Amino acid sequence: MSEIKKIGVFTSGGDAPGMNACIRAVVRTGIFLGKEVVGIYQGYQGMIDKKFINMDARSVRNIIQLGGTVLKTARCAEFRTPEGRATAYKNLKEEGIDALVAIGGDGTFTGAELLSREYDIPIIGIPGTIDNDLYGSDFTLGYDTATNTVLEAIDKIRDTAASHDRLFFIEVMGRDSGCIALHAGVAGGAEAILLPEKETAIDDLILKLEEGALSNKSSSIVIIAEGEKNGGAYNVAKRVKERFNFYDIKVTILGHLQRGGTPSSFDRVLACRLGYASVKALVAGESRKMVGLRGNLIQLTDIVESINNHSYKLEEDLLEMSAILSI
Ligand code: F6P
């Protein structure tokens, strides 16, 4: 394999707090190791549209604390086609980019894996998604911040729920992943937590809420991940309302506010470690791997396994604990 001269870095898919701190780490590590670094705007879309910008150490100043991504992001349908990837690779080659760091979630990694397989370009993935749903890293960038954002919202809603004696259904992000719902639900003392990974019978939910009401609970909070099988917070609230009349019922959808905001210290340190490690891995000749944090050590995982292995971390035992702690 020839020596890498120019590294392209991009963010793709849903933005996540910590992406900027990670871009900074990639750029500065690359420059320190004598490489040129190019930022690619709007992920795969930017590869197709030739949106390249040369980065120097100062180009990433004052971004460690910013949410979102200064390189912008996009979900790019064209890149899913062989023609789209051919154009992207042609543009990368013309630009002299001979290695890539891809920051994003499973969709980003799927694209990276295809490109590196079809065109033999070295790629390292960095897990950047609030969903925390990639195998090979105990945490993904943005998950800690997003969970704390949700928690802050739950605490605020609890104030008004308690004041009015109401039952709130709060929907959080996670189409396929219940990590945010589970952790924010436990930390926020939710009466019930509904996850995409687990079927919840409405009868059981009503029973739990009734038990609470009959034992002098004057308000309750139910956390629902958006991909939960009963169809989200509005549907669950509607079905509960038909048969449960202890409290006034309200629904709050937290939506995209969960994706923004200044990254937590945890996410910033994680971003620095993963960004630094990604460039070191590329320079050491690694490719088609994801850098992740496992048990506080930086480790490499085959990128295909990071996407396809679903035996990861959702600790369903927390549900049982949470049900007991919220009696
Ligand atoms: O992948 C992160 C995520 O925030 C999911 O939790 C959510 O389902 C999805 O992105 C929303 O995507 P979009 O911003 O494209 O609507």
Provide a descriptive summary of the structure in words.
By secondary structure, the chain is an alpha/beta fold. It has two domains: 6-142 and 263-308, Rossmann fold (3-Layer(aba) Sandwich); 144-260, Phosphofructokinase domain (Rossmann fold), CATH 3.40.50. The chain is 42% helix and 18% strand. The protein contains eleven helices and eleven strands. The strands form two sheets. A seven-stranded mixed sheet has the order 3-2-1-4-5-10-11, sandwiched between helices. Strand 1, helix 1 (19-32) and strand 2 (36-40) form a beta-alpha-beta unit. Helix 1 (19-32) packs parallel to helix 9 (265-283) and helix 5 (143-164) crosses helix 6. The relative contact order is 0.17. The model has no long low-confidence stretch (mean pLDDT 96). The structure holds 6-O-phosphono-beta-D-fructofuranose. It holds the Pfam family PFK. It catalyses: beta-D-fructose 6-phosphate + ATP = beta-D-fructose 1,6-bisphosphate + ADP + H(+).
Summarize the entry for a quick read.
With 327 residues, the chain is an alpha/beta fold. The chain has helices spanning 19-32, 43-48, 82-95, 106-119, 143-164, 179-187, 202-214, 233-243, 265-283, 303-308, 317-325, and strands spanning 6-11, 36-40, 52-55, 99-104, 123-127, 166-172, 192-194, 220-225, 248-253, 289-294, 297-302. It contains 11 helices and 11 strands.
- Average residue pLDDT: 96
What's the number of extended β-strand segments? 11
How are the strands ordered across the major sheet?
A: 3-2-1-4-5-10-11
Question: What coarse outline follows from CA principal-axis ratios?
Answer: elongated
CATH class of the largest domain: Alpha Beta
Distance between the termini: 60 Å
